[in-house]
């Protein structure tokens, strides 16, 4: 049975099941050709000017990541990888820390001039990352 959760996203309370029913998700592939600027990314994350890909929405539910944690991670966000030739739109991987010092990786791209799209989000492990910034060789 699907689990019902309530999330506050972009200032709205929304109910969704673990299958992510009921969400209107943004169109794919917008923003091509726009460079990724860390100061703009930080500003948009802190201000709550972000939305999620379907994959990103599933990840926040599975990993119990709140809007407040995303906004707080935006305050300290730093770009650790850049993907200018990503499949749908240029994107990058940013690292930020929550109020409780929880590290978060967010892969982001621009979905429009006003919005940032969170493609995926997760807590990096020390097993896979050095200082949460550099990928370890496998």
Describe it for me?
- This protein has one domain (24-135).
- It is α+β, with helices and mostly antiparallel strands.
- It has helices spanning 38-47, 54-62, 67-75, and strands at residues 4-9, 12-17, 50-52, 78-83, 91-97, 103-110, 116-122, 129-130, 134-135.
- Helix 1 packs antiparallel against helix 3 (67-75).
- The radius of gyration is 15 Å and the shape is globular.
- Helix content is 20%, strand content 34%.
- The model is unreliable at 1-6 and 8-34 (pLDDT under 50).
- It is built from three helices and nine strands.
Can you lay out the helices and strands and say which pair or pack?
Layout: E1 4-9, E2 12-17, H1 38-47, E3 50-52, H2 54-62, H3 67-75, E4 78-83, E5 91-97, E6 103-110, E7 116-122, E8 129-130, E9 134-135
In short, what is this structure?
This protein has 138 residues and is of the alpha+beta class. It has helices at 38-47, 54-62, 67-75; strands at residues 4-9, 12-17, 50-52, 78-83, 91-97, 103-110, 116-122, 129-130, 134-135. It has one domain.
Largest sheet: 5 strands, mixed
- Which word captures the global form? globular
Task: Note the gap between the termini.
Answer: 37 Å
- Tell how many strands the DSSP assignment holds: 9
Number of domains: 1
Strand content: 25-35%
**Tally the helices: what do you get?**
3
Q: What is the CA-based Rg, rounded?
A: 15 Å
The structural class is alpha+beta
Q: Strands across the major sheet, in which order? A: 3-7-6-5-4
Mean pLDDT across residues: 81
Labels describing this entry:
138 residues, alpha+beta, two-stranded antiparallel sheet, 20% helix, disordered N terminus
């Amino acid at each position: 049975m699907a689990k019902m959760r309530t999330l506050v996203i972009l200032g709205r309370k929304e109910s969704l099941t673990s299958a992510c029913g009921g969400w209107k998700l943004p169109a794919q592939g917008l923003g091509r050709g726009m460079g990724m600027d860390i100061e703009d990314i930080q500003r948009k994350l802190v201000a709550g000017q972000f939305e999620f890909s379907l994959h990103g929405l599933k990840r926040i539910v599975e990993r119990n990541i709140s809007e407040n944690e995303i906004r707080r991670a935006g305050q300290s966000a730093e770009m650790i990888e850049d993907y200018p030739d990503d499949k749908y739109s240029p994107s990058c991987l940013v690292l930020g820390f929550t109020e409780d010092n929880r590290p978060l990786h967010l892969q982001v791209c621009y979905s429009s001039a006003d919005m940032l799209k969170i493609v995926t989000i997760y807590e990096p492990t020390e097993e896979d990352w050095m200082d949460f910034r550099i990928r370890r060789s496998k």
